């Protein structure tokens, strides 16, 4: 009495080169060589799309975390520099006010010093506003993979 031999439905060693494992070879009429039902195929495509969307979200999170870390460090350093610069400007302003006091009343000297700083503040505000408008934080890797995913999805439809 001979035992029936059990052959696996999918033998990875017999997979043709150039196809990922788990992929089924396609035949001339575009039909697959497996016996999956339409529901199973739809389920597989849905699972693949779900996995793909999760991977895209993870990639976006990683990219955003990296960019926020860089921006946070830069913002902290700029904050420290801003505080130190504030004290420099404060004492420079007091020095200017006392220098102008040699030729005019202290009140007029203080008003002139305030006017100078008002002009500087306006120029800095306009420059900063322009820089913020020009910034456009994009996610280049995520955008590229999303384009590839869209192409893949279109290929699956046909």
UniProtKB/TrEMBL annotation:
Taxonomic superkingdom: Bacteria
Fetch the Pfam families from UniProt.
Answer: Phage_holin_3_6
> What residue spans carry the region label Disordered?
1-38, 137-158
Q: Which UniProt keywords apply?
A: Membrane, Transmembrane, Transmembrane helix
Q: Where does the record place Basic and acidic residues bias?
A: 146-158
Hey, what's the signal peptide range on this chain? none
Tell me where the transmembrane regions lie.
Answer: 74-100, 106-126
The answer to whether keyword Transmembrane applies is yes
Q: What is the recorded name of this protein?
A: Phage holin family protein
In the record, what lineage is assigned to the organism producing the protein? Bacteria, Bacillati, Actinomycetota, Actinomycetes, Propionibacteriales
